[in-house]
Specification:
The longest helix is centred in the last third of the chain and has 17 residues. This protein has a single domain, classed as Alpha-Beta Barrel (TIM Barrel), CATH 3.20.20. It is 48% helix and 13% strand. By secondary structure, the chain is an alpha/beta fold. Helix 3 packs across helix 11, helix 6 packs parallel to helix 7 and helix 10 runs parallel beside helix 12. The protein has a nine-stranded parallel beta sheet. It has twelve helices and nine strands.
Length: 277
Amino acid sequence: MSLTSQLAATIRSAHDRNESALGIFVTSGFPSPDRTLDVLSAVVRGGADFVELGMPFSDPLAEGLPIQRSSERALRHGIRMRDTLQTAADFRAAHDVPLVLMGYANPVLRFGLGNFFDAAHSSGVQGVILPDVPPEEADPFLDAASRAGIDLIMLVSPTTPDERIRRIDEMSSGFVYAVSVTGVTGTTLGAQDQISSYLDRVRSLLQRNPLMVGFGIRTQADVRRLSRSADGCIVGSALIELIEECYPASSDGRSDSDAMDRIAGFVRSLKVGTRHE
């Protein structure tokens, strides 16, 4: 983990502005390799506090259909790990906004654990999320991340016991990622009382890290309601669906300027929901 986490500092800086933080997920190579960087720039223009760049994988177990489709589309374009790392480097050369890579252990291990984290560091990456790496298997990943000065961000869910949450807090840096529902990304949120109770429980157990919540967050209203119980929200599937609408796989879709304005406008509307009343 990094000694002074830029991610944690960014989340706390939003709190100092009387806001919650907003993270936005975009799949690398989607909607096409030549447009990903423009999409990321539009996300920043819309006010995202940090971005998650998805590493395409053929079997993304935690993802719902929109992100699965985006990953499949990127792989058809020939996107590989080195392409994603180059996109991260290009983004960080243009923006000060922190960048997190999110994906699965298999492509990371194929690339080489130490090589991956070293290359991620060279590309300006601040954090990595690997949903299929549980605490029991995390030590080699934690060691490689620590040596590279990168935050390894771990996940909790509504079924995670208290003691395991404490352990995950000890192991994580940057933030702890709370999955809002038991299911895949894009799943509809449940009852407000249940989610609030779950997030309040997690937050009360964290001693080291801020708490971000994701999965199933689609609207400004969703962001507003969950920001009451967490330090910020992460949105992915809803934006992926908007990008699909702008750039259907069967055609070039809308003009780039129109599409990027829509993307920035959507993120801007989500950011309004982070403001504390």
